Amino acid sequence: MLRVSEYASVTDTGRQRRANEDALFARTPVFVVADGMGGAQAGEVASTTVIEAFGEGMPELSPEQALTEVIQTANARIHEMSRTDVHRAGMGTTVTAAHVGEHDIAVAHVGDSRAYRWRDGELERLTEDHSLVEELRRQGKLTAEEAEEHPQRSIITRALGPEPDVLVDTASWRAQAGDLYLLCSDGLTSMISEEAVAEVLATQTPGEPLEAVARRLVAAANEAGGRDNITVVLFRIEEVGGATAAPDDQATMAGGDAPTAAQIRAAVQDADSAAAEAQARRLQPRAPQEAPVDQTLGRTRGRRFLIALGVAVFLGIPILFGAYAASQAVYFVGSSDGFVAMYRGLPYELPLGLDLYTLNYTSGVPVDAVAEARREELLDHSLRSREDAADLINQLERGELATSPAR
Questions:
Q1: pLDDT in tens, 323-367
Q2: Is 198 helix (H, G, I), strand (E, B) or coil?
Q3: Contact 344, 293 (CB under 8 A)
Q4: Domains and CATH numbers, the chain
Q5: How many other β-carbons are positioned within 10 Å of the β-carbon of residue 57?
């Protein structure tokens, strides 16, 4: 019979985020990582909702079924909140959860957080990302190396929250003594390669605490840029009767003792209320715009039409539908009525008048006020997270980026 001999958990905001939208749960025999999306007012709520659901306990079902049911419960709660609260519209989260049984490890997974197994000096990924780039890799249209560097690798095609029901991937693997398992958010794997992860795991010395290894992984991601929140959960398996004492049954979140579900939610609200209010004031939307997207997008409509046709041929209709669903999680900066604006979705217009974007916010900065040297770079429609796009516009509105006098 097997059990968990040791575990460790670390979560970090990273170097380029203002708040941590990741959350984790560690209470033997269940371990969970969730990566929220939707900004500080929503992403943290979504990921914390998952942790609260697991904190309520597992139903008496098979491990895979039990993990799935808890995830479905969390999804229903997140979807309901996003549907009834305008400030949380579109919020969602990934989840990767593991259950340690007497002989097997069961994993349930939605999104692009990951689970790995370190055995006999080799690292094996146990989950497949639900992302546009991973779909292309599975179809053989991208190599693994190309997928790791692809600029759109963060576009996910499945998450908790957007729909009332979610498809959960589950699988079980036979475990053995000495196995080390890693659950992580994409803030780790988007910054360092799997080879680099393996190198860090290989540096562990006999008797060294797992927390030290977890912190080295987080440090490596930060040294590589730390563009996202980083969460790492490690747990090791041993035979019952081994010399290492089993850990206690106390849940942990963010590397410490976990509070109750009510305390978790209160902490989220207290820690970020000021930041959320400031963000809301900066991004208070104007009245709905009836005018069409102006010249910045209009000049490229013909080119995008051709691109869209090419994408349709290249990806196929199923992937296009997946891309459309995924578009609700990404943003880009363009212009509307001559002002810098933020759009939600992908900057493409498909045949039959289907736009993959909607106007999200119009700033008070005229396009002509942005210095020509910066204009093309800033308004190039690069895909960004909501926070990145909002930060860029906030900097423009505060005059922190190069601008020229308005005409």
A1: 555 566 777 888 887 778 878 888 877 666 667 777 777 777 787
A2: helix
A3: no
A4: 2-278 (3.60.40.10), 283-397 (no CATH)
A5: 11
Measured distance CA(178)–CA(2) in Å, rounded:
10
The whole-number pLDDT of residue 243 equals 42
CB 249 within 8 A of CB 11: no
Averaged pLDDT score across all residues of the chain = 78
Distance of CA 393 to the CA centre of its chain: 22
The neighbouring-strand residues paired with 24 are 33
**Residues whose CB is less than 8 angstroms from the CB of residue 160 and which lie 6 or more positions away in sequence, other chains included:** 46, 50, 71, 74, 75, 78, 79, 92, 93, 94, 95, 110, 111, 166
pLDDT of residue 254: 46
Give me the torsion for CA of 263, 266, 272, 277, rounded to 10°: 170
For the chain, give the percent of residues with pLDDT over 70.
70
Torsion over CA: 355, 356, 360, 362 (sign): negative
14: left (phi over 0), alpha (psi -120 to 50) or beta: left
Confidence of residue 247 (pLDDT cuts 50, 70, 90): very low
Quick check: helix, strand or coil at residue 227? coil
Mean pLDDT of 146-169: 82
- Can you tell me whether residue 390 is helix, strand or coil? helix
State pTM to two decimals.
0.62
Q: Which residues pair with 119 in a beta bridge?
A: 122
CA angle 160, 172, 201 (to 5 degrees): 85
Q: Tokens representing 9?
A: 């958990």
What is the tens place of the pLDDT at every residue in 366-399? 877 787 777 777 777 888 777 777 777 777 766 6
How far apart are alpha carbons 248 and 6 in whole angstroms? 10
